[in-house]
Amino acid sequence: MIPRAHYIHELGEVQRALLQLGEAVQRALVHAMGALARGDLAAARRIIREDDDIDERRAAVEERALHLIAAQQPFATDLRFLLAALRIADDLERIGDYAEGIAALVLRSADEPTLELPHELNLLTAQVQQMLKLSVAAVVERDSSAIDDLRRADDLADELNRTIRAAMLRRIQSTPHQATRALYFLFVAHNLERIADRAVNIAERTAFIVTGAQPKLGEARDS
Fold first, then answer.
1. Cut 0.90: pTM above it
2. Theoretical Cys-Cys bridge with 79: which of 35, 58, 74, 221, CB 3.0 to 4.6 Å?
3. DSSP assignment string, 127-186
């Protein structure tokens, strides 16, 4: 067993590493959507390169959490936090992958005919970025009540995704020369919808830390 003061310090380090991972992922998403809006190839390439940093941050959270579990054998809230931290780090790293995927689409669409971003895609982007911000804040503040707000927000994200899908399918049929870029917008909307699901997952794992109640299997998303 490590000394109690050192143990408390290490718990705080796991929390800080998780927060830094969350901040890195939020930046990646903002930059990816900005690159998409501007057709910024240099920014897209930078986002793809920086995904390695997100992967390393996730590995650091896992290493710290697993070391504490093995060395200290924590129980109750501390154990739930460390177990949840492992899953939250996985959720955040996958969100980084979705942002990287959006950046890759920016590169692939460089030579395609232009197509204005659908208004609903901008709405979905704002919705998902706010959800991700709320979910990371919930972890930091151990706020189990955030889950209700995030589930309602996820319903709206699902609705926006359906609207975008219908609009892009109509676009593909009406203007075939823009079909490829419309198809890419479908992928972007899908990635954003998956990020919304992951944000809800994070809120559910936060509720687990606070209450000890496991999410219902039927409500699990993209795990």
1. yes
2. 74
3. HHHHHHHHHHHHHHHT-TTHHHHHHHHHHHHHHHHHHHHHHHHHHHHH-GGGHHHHHHHH
